[in-house]
Amino acid sequence: MPAAPLASVLFVCVHNAGRSQMAAGFLHHLAGDRIEVRSAGSTPGDQVNPAAVQAMQEVGIDIADAKPKILTTEAVQASDYVITMGCGDACPIFPGKKYLDWALEDPAGKGVEAVRPIRDEIKTRIEALIAEIDAKQKT
Fold first, then answer.
1. Do residues 68 and 38 lie in contact, with contact meaning Cβ atoms separated by under 8 Å?
2. Is 87 a catalytic residue?
3. Given phi > 0 = left and psi -120 to 50 = alpha, else beta, which region is 86?
4. Which distant-in-sequence residues (6+ apart) come within 8 Å of 106 by Cβ?
5. What is the pLDDT of residues 25-79, one digit of tens each?
6. Single pTM value for the model
7. φ/ψ of residue 90, rounded to 5
8. Which is the catalytic residue, given 7, 9, 10, 13?
9. Is-catalytic flag, 62?
C-alpha cells in the first residue's frame, strides 16, 4: 500500500492556463506521488497556454493534456499549501493552511521565449517548496 502524500499543494492563478499549470507540472515531475498536486483558476481559460506547454516540453515535462479547472472551496480545504500566482485572486482563507503568493509575470499572450524565464523561476520556487515540505517531515 503506497504511503500517504507528505502534503497537498494547490496552485491558483486567474485562468489556470500558464503559471499554475507549469508549477503543477514541475511539482508532480520532481516530487512524484510524495506530494499531492492540484491547480485551479478563478476564471479558468479554455485551454493551457500553448507557449507554456512548449516551454515545459523543452525540459521534458508534458502538460499538454492538462485542463484549466475552476477554483473551489473544497480544493482549498483539501490542501495544506495554497500558492497564488501574483494575480490577486480572492481565495477562501481557512485556518491551518499555508498561503504563499508567488509574484510571477503572466505568460498569457507571450511567446515561448518570454515564457522560458517564468518557467525557470517557477522551477526554482518548486525546488525550494519541496525542500521545505521534506524538512517539515524530519522535525
1. no
2. yes
3. left
4. 13, 18, 19, 86, 87
5. 999 999 999 999 999 998 899 999 999 999 999 999 999 999 999 999 999 999 9
6. 0.93
7. -80, 105
8. 13
9. no
